[in-house]
UniProtKB/TrEMBL annotation:
Subunit structure: Homodimer.
Identification of the protein by name: Glutamate-1-semialdehyde 2,1-aminomutase
PROSITE patterns: AA_TRANSFER_CLASS_3
Record bears the keyword Isomerase: yes
Record's catalysed reaction(s): (S)-4-amino-5-oxopentanoate = 5-aminolevulinate
N6-(pyridoxal phosphate)lysine modification, residue list: 267
Pathway: Porphyrin-containing compound metabolism; protoporphyrin-IX biosynthesis; 5-aminolevulinate from L-glutamyl-tRNA(Glu): step 2/2
Keywords, comma-separated and alphabetical: Cytoplasm, Isomerase, Porphyrin biosynthesis, Pyridoxal phosphate
Amino acid sequence: MLYKRSSALFKNAENVIPGGVNSPVRAFKAVGGTPIFAKFAKGAYVYDEDDNRYIDYINSWGPMLLGHAFEPVVNAVIEKAKKGTSFGMPTEIETKIAELAVSMVPNVDKIRFVNSGTEACMSAVRLARGYTGKEKIVKFAGCYHGHSDAFLIQAGSGAVTFGSPNSPGVTKGTAQDTLLAIYNDIDNVKALIEANTNEIACIIIEPVAGNMGCIPPKDDFLQKLRTLCDEHRILLIFDEVMTGFRLAKGGAQELYGVDADIMCFGKVIGGGLPVGAFAARNEIMNHLAPLGSVYQAGTLSGNPLAMAAGMAMLTAIENDKDLFKRLADKTEYLHKGCAAALNKYNVTHTINRRGSMISIHFSEEEVVDFESAAKGNNETFKTFFHGMLNEGIYIAPSAFETWFITDALSYDDLDETIRAVEKVAQTL
Ligand code: PLP
């Protein structure tokens, strides 16, 4: 593959954009090399500025569940744009998409639209604090909920300690209110709650983690969290920014049969436009301004183009009864093919999968939390990543990311991917 034009574009970008990118992971820092610049994309493929074609397993980090440039979304956006791109006034389509989303997701009465997953999670936490009158939050090491200060916290010396900021600019005061727990370890969560009696407003979790590679919840971990939250008047927040409308129509709540108190959405719900949302029952949502006193707002929230894209996306999902089975079948096929290819060349690995989320960890150990995810061999991952890129397969440039399977992938695409894994496995 030639990356001549991408390299030149990256050099130009570095002059005027910090690190040449508008979101750090795009810079390929974890794997080395120069990021490829996208020119256009259609269906399962993305094409770069050097006219290389890739089978895309990033899919804009999740939104493109039905493939790139999905026609109903594109047409909806074009038609809306002709009538004005923003009004700062209520529009009918906001109610229509809210009605649709509320009908698809279990256990919610109202939804508020924002502009990103970060905003959704940040607002959900504020709402939980306002509703419970408590200040501390519990998050899990390795889970990502956007770049709001309260989430940029790393573990302290022991799990039952306060976290400390992992970015300059996050104050110690903020870090003190974020407690770090271990994913899939219910005893650890219990200990945190006992050490902070009556102080915890909410537990926020990715119900299937996708930001330390894909890590599904073990056994009845989510159900046990639910029980603990009920016992201690703590709100359970499912960050469904990745899982919402991806694992099932009703997201992880539906898939695992566990009700959360507040759900956060992003990615798929906007069909590729900048959209996030959070939702809950009336009892909680009615605390939001202007009904209640918890403030939350946005100049471009409910933007007509974004709502049109989201509406077209959710409508397509709602009307496709086999979608989630098709996605899970394709992911299983890929899992089996990759495992066989890696086994053929004795490459040590663990594959995690749930629905249309999957990741390969170059580790012997079962990967169940951040610590076990971090044991993966990063050098092997780097070689694998560049090998796959060279074969025309675009996976996330970090071992700590899930792959997102799109319905636009054909079984031929999956076979091509598996052949590439087999070829690259020989070099590992
Ligand atoms: N929550 C989860 C689970 C995410 O994966 C992400 C982003 O990847 C976010 C929140 C933040 O969303 P955004 O990047 O749209 O702000």
